[in-house]
Amino acid sequence: MRGKLITFEGCEGVGKSTQVRLLKEYLVKTRQEAVFIREPGGTRISEKIRDIILSIENKEMFGECELLLYNASRAQLISEVVKPALDEGKLVVCDRFIDSTLAYQGYARGLGFEYVKTLNEFVAKDCFPDATVYLDLNPKDAFRRKGGADKGDRLESEALSFHNRVYEGYKRASEIYSDRFVVIKPLGNKFATHEEIISALRNKGLIE
Description:
Layout: E1 4-10, H1 16-29, E2 34-38, H2 44-54, H3 63-87, E3 91-95, H4 98-108, H5 113-124, E4 131-135, H6 139-146, H7 160-176, E5 181-184, H8 190-203
Parallel strand pairs: 1-3, 1-4, 2-3, 4-5
Helix pairs in contact: 1-8, 2-3, 3-5, 4-5, 4-7
């Protein structure tokens, strides 16, 4: 039986990586096996591409280059890790995936939502999320909660207007893929948000 793929999405500073960590701790505690990965990255080659994408030294990078680098990293990750794990019936949890590319490059960079959607489909092949946990918090509030942007991260250091477009892109993706998007408002503390996520994933039959 094919495994399941859960992805986590959201703007910078929403607490996404914290929720991925809490899910991992829950699955370990309840003895549910899962493979945890991140994007960009997750393999030796993909991590090298990640360094290029996020380095503040590469401010002159064009959107088209950025888009292709993200998908190059993803192609390696899917072939090397995601597809083999799913074929073995494993649960895979990924911190960011195809919807990040739709929101950041397709919408915020203005490269075309439909074009990026087609490219994502080419790279992902049959490895699409069974559920996408989307932490719905606007960039202004997210950065305030985080304590500001990471100035060493090329994407985080973009202007607030860029991050607002990313937020709009996620809203559009959540409407198009409403069947798999689990929209969570991270307004309480991280443990309350975690409980909401666990409940939603249980209801979808993806975890116990």
